[in-house]
Amino acid sequence: xxxxxxxxxxxxxxxxxxxxxxxxxxxxxxxxxxxxxxxxxxxxxxxxxxxxxxxxxxxxxxxxxxxxxxxxxxxxxxxxxxxxxxxxxxxxxxxxxxxxxxxxxxxxxxxxxxxxxxxxxxxxxxxxxxxxxxxxxxxxxxxxxxxxxxxxxxxxxxxxxxxxxxxxxxxxxxxx
Length: 176
Description:
- The protein has helices at 2-16, 19-39, 45-68, 72-86, 95-109, 117-128, 142-153, 155-159.
- The chain is mainly α.
- The longest helix has 24 residues, at 45-68.
- 20% of the residues are buried.
């Protein structure tokens, strides 16, 4: 269904002479076809969303690098491509919706501490694919919300454990 919509949009862009849009849609179709050939399967809508989500993430990373290097024209091109890719992604979830999904996943998985984060994320990922940014730099990160909720739900259990990068160094023997 989604793949067919992308193909129809590609035909419309060809007929309309919209070359920048056509180039981006061709990149999408190439990525979908590559995955289908690699895995020898026909992608369903969920898998196409995963491909689109990955492409958006790649472009966001590229934008950051281009801006850091002062290449605004390339960053603008990546932003344009993100705009087209997002047309095919479902509407983004709000903070409240993410919090509700996180709470539901924690309840369903029986997670009690941060050690159960894998169970929670395993339930969350299919529900939010393409609707929330799972990567860094987003204020609405589901993984961050789940981690915060799991650590605050049982503060005594996690309070004595070292936290943060290099935290184990604070507990290391320093008697040299």
